[in-house]
Every structure is written in C-alpha cells, then in structure tokens.
C-alpha cells in the first residue's frame, strides 16, 4: 500500500512537471503541437486500456489543464477516450450482473472495452496466426 501511494505521488508530480513544461513552452502557440497531441494521445490510450494509470483523477486534472491552456478542440478526443472507458465499465458491470443468472463457463473473466473509432489512436494491423482447435 505504501509503495502504491509513493507511486501515485510520483505520478502526480511527474504530470505537474509535464504541465509546467507545456505552459513554459506555450504549447498552444507551437507549430508542432500536433506531434505532442499524437504522443500524448497514444500514451494516454495505453495507460487507460492497460489499466496502468496511477490516478484517473490526476489524468483528468491534466486534461482540464490542457483544455484551459489550449481550448476544447485540443482535448475533445481525449475527453472522449475517458467517456468510452466509463461507458465500457458500466456495460461490463451490467453484463457481469446478467451473467450471474446464466451458466457460462469462462465468461466471468471476459473484459470488453467499447471504443469510439474517432477518439482513439490507430495502429497498423497485425496478422495473427491462431493455432487450430
């Protein structure tokens, strides 16, 4: 528990430092803010999907600071990512409650995220060869 608290404090401090760098660099006046947005969006997506964000509140705080500095157009897709995750959580909760009344082995471990295509970064498709049953 102490290590997690220490990690959370480190994460929050790191986000504060990133925001101060953004503010001092006047990100919204930069020509290459699209590059920053792409990297930030990719990293945020990874943290949200893998569940490795130390604090959703800290993530949302950073998002509100970016919105304040750069405007809503800059953060609208990032906000959509959070909405997708909240909606997915609600849907999965309802699904798991429904599944308590149905006998289906292995389904209890299923986790699904519903993602809006326009909000999330895209990746090059990978071909996967699955073993035959």
From TrEMBL:
Occurrences of domain Cullin family profile (ranges): 30-133
Keywords noted in UniProt: Isopeptide bond, Ubl conjugation
* Domain of life assignment: Eukaryota
Which GO terms are recorded in the biological process aspect for this UniProt protein?
Answer: ubiquitin-dependent protein catabolic process
GO terms for MF: ubiquitin protein ligase binding
Family named by the database record: Belongs to the cullin family.
Q: Which protein, by its recorded name, is this?
A: Cullin family profile domain-containing protein
The species this protein belongs to is Capitella teleta (Polychaete worm)
